[in-house]
Design goal:
Elements lengths: L13 H4 L3 E4 L2 E6 L2 E12 L4 E12 L5 E2 L1 H4 L6 H20 L7 E6 L1 H6 L6 H9 L6 E6 L6 H14 L2 E7 L6 H7 L3 E4 L1 H9 L1 H16 L3 E4 L5 H10 L3 E2 L21 H14 L3 H21 L4 H4 L1 H4 L4 E8 L4 E7 L1 H4 L21 H8 L5 E2 L3 E2 L6 E11 L2 E10 L11
Parallel strand pairs: 4-6, 6-7, 7-8, 8-9, 9-10, 10-11
Antiparallel strand pairs: 1-2, 2-3, 3-4, 3-11, 4-5, 12-13, 12-17, 14-16, 15-16, 16-17
């Protein structure tokens, strides 16, 4: 860079940045260390809205021969903190100048903030408010992305996030689920959007358990009041995983690659209707295990309840259920949710019990009232209750529980039956 930069820059750096930008047709470019910088936009889609709701701005650098320079090499060029700060602001200035003239006048612009700028605190980034005023871009259309990383000054980080929020911008935590990310950051910073790291999706592509964890993370983030964006979606299967996980937004090469041809982006559409049609079709073929299991076992289960209500002993009443290899156990609960006697374990399950969980096997007098399905069965005798698949505490395996309240000698009882939910563990077979 030809000009000498001050060690600290204060807010009229716009006067320093403006000469570094050049109009190039319908867009702007910037010069840094002899490289030409351009804005690339990658669309972000809402699955439910089936359309673009925002764009992430990414920097692209080119040398004098118009050959692409890796962003990693670009950000290695600064030799001082002042240069690091200037490059970060130059990129954001360039992106906002380009987006201000963009045809889309509705959706969000996602901007990355350098970790060094974040750690420098809100006063060091006060130029951003001046930048928005100069370009006329409303702050409510900006999402400031902050990459999670260890920091010695959590309070300063909170101040920085609060600064952008006070301006009227939305804030996003980037790369959640990798490195130093944790829910404590979510609670402390209260971001509007959380971007999940692509590694979570990569693991979920090949690992069923990782897929369940991904779904759980999305649920927890929603309960924390955050919208969730899954980035790095590159295949049809990964798009299906994203839809099933319940994320709000998606981003990745499967939907659209980043492009410096800004004028063409709003006119290019992605077939989300077709994607959702595939998801619905697949969901009809592979239904929720609880629905399949209920359809097969309901008759046997109600028959067992009828026998119990007529005074038959538990083991005899449940013999047909317990003979099926997919049934793990049956147990009886009173009107307060406390288990009566011990659990009846099927022969198939008894032979495959994991000795590591032996301390959890005996459930005599266990209190199951906290379980919602049991409270519903107590409140609605005669109505079959069916859970979604969940982790059974007595053996750490996934199961679906059927429960139904009935009366015997004027006393309310609830029969419960746990059925293995994982089709790979045992197949549900008729006959």
């Amino acid at each position: 860079m030809s000009r000498t930069l001050p060690e600290e820059m204060t807010a009229p750096e716009l006067d320093l940045l403006s000469p570094m930008l050049t109009r190039d047709g319908d867009s702007w470019t910037a010069d840094f260390h002899g490289l030409t910088l351009r804005t690339a936009l990658q669309p972000i889609f809402s699955i439910s809205h089936k359309r673009i709701v925002g764009y992430e701005a990414l920097i692209r650098a080119f040398d004098n021969d118009n050959a692409a320079v890796l962003p990693l090499h670009l950000f290695e060029l600064p030799t001082t903190e002042a240069e690091n700060l200037l490059l970060d602001r130059l990129c954001r200035y360039l992106h906002i100048r380009n987006y201000s003239g963009f045809k889309d006048q509705l959706n969000w612009l996602f901007l990355n903030v350098s970790p060094r700028v974040v750690s420098a605190g809100s006063r060091a980034d006060s130029f951003f408010g001046e930048l928005l005023k100069k370009t006329g871009l409303p702050p409510h259309r900006i999402v400031m992305e902050i990459v999670e990383q260890p920091t010695d000054d959590a309070e300063r980080l909170r101040e920085t996030v609060a600064y952008y929020q006070d301006l009227g911008c939305l804030t996003a935590i980037d790369d959640f689920g990798a490195g130093h990310s944790n829910f404590e950051r979510i609670w402390n910073l209260s971001p509007d959007i959380v971007k999940l790291d692509r590694k979570l999706l990569t693991r979920a592509t090949d690992d069923r358990k990782a897929r369940q964890i991904l779904n759980g993370i999305v649920s927890l983030l929603h309960q924390s009041g955050c919208l969730v964006l899954l980035e790095g979606v590159e295949t049809h299967d990964q798009a299906m995983i994203a839809i099933d996980a319940g994320v709000d937004f998606v981003q990745g090469f499967y939907f659209r690659k980043p492009s410096t041809s800004l004028a063409d982006i709003p006119t290019e559409m992605t077939d989300l209707d077709g994607l959702l049609k595939d998801y619905k079709s697949k969901n009809r073929v592979t239904q929720d295990p609880s629905q399949q299991l209920t359809a097969f076992f309901e008759g046997f289960f109600r028959n067992a309840v009828d026998r119990l209500s007529q005074g038959m002993m538990m083991r005899e009443a449940c013999s047909t259920l317990l003979n099926h290899p997919a049934v793990s156990r049956c147990y009886l609960v009173d009107e307060t949710g406390v288990q009566i006697d011990d659990t009846l374990v099927s022969d198939a399950m008894a032979s495959s019990l994991d000795p590591r969980f032996r301390p959890l096997e005996s459930t005599t007098s266990a209190d199951w009232y906290r379980q919602q399905y049991l409270r519903q069965a107590i409140a609605q005798p005669g109505y079959l209750q069916v859970t979604a698949p969940y982790l059974c505490i007595t053996g750490a395996y996934m199961c679906v529980t059927l429960s139904l309240g009935y009366f015997h000698n004027g006393q309310l009882r609830v029969l419960c039956c746990d059925i293995l939910a994982n089709p790979t563990e045992t197949a549900v077979r008729k006959g």
